[in-house]
Design a protein that fits this description.
The protein has one domain: Jelly Rolls (Sandwich). It is 14% helix and 35% strand. It has 4 helices and 14 strands. The strands form 4 sheets. It has a 7-stranded antiparallel beta sheet with strand order 2-11-7-14-6-4-5, covered by helices on one side. The radius of gyration is 17 Å and the shape is globular.
C-alpha cells in the first residue's frame, strides 16, 4: 500500500462513529511525494465559493466525483455535476443547487489523491458493497484582520454520505478551527483541533453531526489559511 498507518482505524470505527488520526500516524510512500506536493500547491488556485450565507469572500473550493470498486481497486472519473444537500442536514446552504468549479485534469490524475480515496475506504467497516461514489472537495479558508474565516458557515450539519473523511492540507498563520463531533441529538461528543498537515478525522455521517469554529489570523498583518481535503463516500449498492 502506498499510504500506511499503524492506527487501528477500522477497529475504532466498529466501537464508535468517528476517529481522529494525527499526522504522525501516516506514512506516505516516497513515490507519492511529487503528487502530494502538487496537490497541496493546487489550493492556491481554487475559485471562490459563491454560496456563503454572509456573502463573505473567505472560502475557495473545487469539487469532483469518482466511482470506486473496492473489490477490484478500480477508480474512474465521473462527469461533473452540480452539488446539492438537503436542508434537513444543512439548514443554511442545503436546498440550494450549488455550481462549484470542477477538479482540474491534473487533480483527477493525482496519484496521492487517488491513494487517499482507496486508503480511507479500505480502513472503514462495511465496505463490501459493489461500488461507491466518492465526492472530493478541496476547500481553502482564509482569514485576515477584521475578517474571520468560517470553515463551516452552515454550522452544525451532516454531509449526506455514509462515510466522510477530512484531512488537513495547510494551516498557516491561523488559530481556531476547533472541530466538534456531535451525537444525533446534536449534543457534543468531542472537540479537537487539526494542527499539522495530514491531521485527519473520519466519521459515520448518518449518525453524527459536525461543525468547526471560525479561524482568525495569529499575526493580523498577514493572511491566515486553513485548507482541507474532504471525501464523501456514497454507497451505490
Amino acid at each position: 500500500m502506498s499510504i500506511l498507518t499503524p492506527y487501528p482505524i477500522r477497529a475504532t470505527l466498529t466501537e464508535q462513529p468517528y476517529v481522529v488520526i494525527r499526522a504522525d500516524q501516516f506514512t506516505i510512500a516516497p513515490e507519492l511525494a511529487t503528487d502530494y506536493h502538487a496537490l497541496r500547491a493546487a489550493y492556491a488556485d481554487l475559485p471562490a465559493d459563491d454560496y456563503l450565507p454572509d456573502g463573505g469572500k473567505y472560502r475557495f473550493r473545487r469539487f469532483g466525483r469518482y466511482r470506486y470498486q473496492p473489490d477490484s481497486g478500480h477508480l474512474e472519473r465521473l462527469p461533473h455535476r452540480d452539488y446539492f444537500q438537503d436542508q434537513l442536514i444543512n439548514p443554511v446552504t442545503g436546498g440550494i443547487v450549488r455550481k462549484f468549479a470542477p477538479l482540474t485534469d491534473a487533480l483527477f490524475e493525482n496519484r496521492f489523491l487517488q491513494a487517499m480515496i482507496r486508503f480511507n475506504l479500505d480502513h472503514v467497516p462495511d465496505t463490501s458493497l459493489t461500488a461507491w461514489e466518492v465526492d472530493v472537495h478541496l476547500i481553502r479558508v482564509i482569514t485576515k484582520a477584521g475578517m474571520a474565516g468560517e470553515p463551516t458557515p452552515e454550522g452544525i450539519h451532516q454531509d449526506g454520505a455514509e462515510w466522510v473523511t477530512v484531512h488537513l492540507m495547510a494551516l498557516e498563520n491561523a488559530q481556531g478551527g476547533d472541530v466538534t463531533i456531535y451525537d444525533d441529538q446534536k449534543q457534543p461528543i468531542e472537540t479537537f483541533r487539526l494542527l499539522h498537515v495530514m491531521d485527519s478525522y473520519l466519521f459515520r455521517d448518518p449518525i453524527v453531526w459536525h461543525g468547526a469554529t471560525p479561524i482568525q489570523p495569529i499575526d493580523p498583518s498577514r493572511i491566515g489559511v486553513r485548507s482541507i481535503l474532504t471525501f464523501d463516500y456514497h454507497a451505490l449498492g
